[in-house]
């Protein structure tokens, strides 16, 4: 479900005309080989693994560098500062399976949304 939700976000970017050719990941989740492959397969995009462990702080530093004029764009800053140690490619067989599952997920979520809120209230 988590990676399907992330895929929805990627699709929103595409709807806005923002082309995404890969996803870069770092930190704890990037250490899990299965998690990286699931992301590549569900997104149907290469997953680039950075050796950097503190992704949030690194992203903030990149944003600050652009804000103060060290770089003119986020893309330029990323090109200069982000290093890649590994690239995970989607497995076409898995992509086909996850695509079918994703379409089921997309229809289930609106039907279950109210139930999710009820479950959340029970937890508080």
Molecular structure report:
With 124 residues, this protein is mostly helical. It has two domains: 1-45 and 89-119, no CATH class; 51-84, no CATH class. It contains five helices and three strands. Strand 1, helix 2 (33-43) and strand 2 form a beta-alpha-beta unit. The chain is globular and about 50 Å long.
Alpha-carbon Rg, integer:
17 Å
The tally of strands reads 3
Average residue pLDDT: 93
Which strand order does the major sheet show? 1-2-3
Termini Cα gap: 22 Å
Describe the largest sheet.
3 strands, mixed
The helix count comes to: 5
Protein name: Carbohydrate kinase FGGY C-terminal domain-containing protein
Domain Carbohydrate kinase FGGY C-terminal: 1-67
Keywords: Kinase, Transferase
GO molecular function, one term: kinase activity
Short characterization:
With 124 residues, the protein is mainly α.
Structure characteristics:
124 residues; mainly alpha; 2 domains; three-stranded mixed sheet; 5 helices; FGGY_C
Helix/strand layout:
Layout: H1 2-15, E1 23-25, H2 33-43, E2 47-49, H3 55-67, H4 74-81, E3 86-88, H5 92-123
């Amino acid at each position: 479900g988590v990676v399907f939700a992330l895929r929805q976000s990627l699709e929103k970017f595409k709807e806005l005309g923002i082309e995404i050719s890969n996803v870069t990941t770092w930190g704890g989740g990037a250490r899990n080989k299965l998690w990286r492959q699931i992301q590549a397969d569900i997104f149907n995009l290469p997953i680039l693994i950075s050796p950097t462990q503190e992704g949030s702080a690194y992203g903030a530093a990149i944003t600050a560098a652009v804000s103060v004029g060290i770089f003119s764009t986020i893309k330029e800053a990323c090109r200069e500062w982000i290093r890649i140690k590994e690239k995970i490619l989607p497995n076409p067989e898995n992509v086909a399976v996850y695509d079918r599952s994703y379409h089921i997920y997309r229809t289930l979520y609106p039907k279950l949304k109210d139930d999710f809120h009820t479950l959340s209230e029970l937890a508080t």
